[in-house]
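Example record

The entry below shows one chain as it appears in the dataset: sequence first, then structure tokens.
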Amino acid sequence: MVRRLSFAVALAVVFVWALGGSVPNAAQAPAQGGAAQAAGPIKLARHPDYHAGKIAFSYLGDIWVVNEDGSRPERLTINTARETTPRFSPDGRRVVMSLASSGNTEIYTMDLSTRRTSRLTNSPGIDTSPSFSPDATRIVFNSDRGGSQQLYVMGADGGGVTRISFGDGRYGTPVWSPRGDLIAFTRMVGGTFYIGVMRPDGSGERMLTNGFLVEGPTWSPNGRVISFFRQDGGGAATRLYTIDLTGRNERLVETPQDGSDPAWSPLIP
């Protein structure tokens, strides 16, 4: 019961912002991510990540942080580049994200106390969707640097990049489990999408579910259930689901409207 309640908290915040929250426009946003006053309704916010009462998300090509009750939105990035897919470090002091500029996309981290960014990757490919390991020593991400979109793991300083996926099709949206034992991902093969898991070294790959569109896996706090979103055909509603690591017990998560990009909150005591 506690696990379901904690999941609902994160979802509620995402939907409040998607349906009725507001953020400042570019002219009103503070230059260094200070507190901002709401100016207009927010639509199409993406890629939420939750940590200690804060939610990071991408909106119109910038990274924002907001309190879980929707208050005090802060714009973290203000430049001509496009930043997406933010994720907190385990201690909440940094955000890792992808930054697209001049036709190239790389992985960066931002120190939330100073707002300083550090570039971690430097390749001619598109590097995106980074996620920290629970001990903060490694980062998993997807990249097409080898010709097709695959999964890679590197040190938190950007060193020691290693490819871990070698199957057919394309891999994306990797996220490290809270226990550190598995990485969840999306795989696209021949027009079908899959949600799967593998060990951090790339071994033990297995698929849990598939469909016309299944994407955006995220882990429950206990590391044994995954949430994702599903669309069963062109024009069909997009819905949230959960599934356990056996690939069974797939369940619909009821939402007031279409839903995507779920993010779990921690367990509630």
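Notes for this example: Helices lie at 2-19. Residues 2-19 form the longest helix (18 residues).
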